[in-house]
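Hi Y.,

Following your request, here is the sequence exactly as I used it, all 87 residues.
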Amino acid sequence: MRVIIRSKDVNMWLPVPLVLADAAVRFLPDSVMEEIRNPIPSPYREVITKELLQELVRECRNVFKEYKGLEIVHVEAQDGTFVSIRL
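Below is the corresponding structure, written out as tokens. Let me know if you'd prefer a different format.
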């Protein structure tokens, strides 16, 4: 995945390996998981776990490989700031 950010002061291009997403979910603190679960209604709250999120990331990684180069975020502001996220 590539994250591109351009503004008056910054011109940044960040390659982000999709494997990093799985690691990020694995190392999420329990406090963050609680914040994620809070707005979810009670019967579904127990379903959201780190294991479920890791499985979703793995499945998405397989799908992302099929759509390589797809732009999933494209934002251009009035002041010329540009943000793009491509698979």
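The chain is about 45% helix and 25% strand.

Thanks again,
Q.
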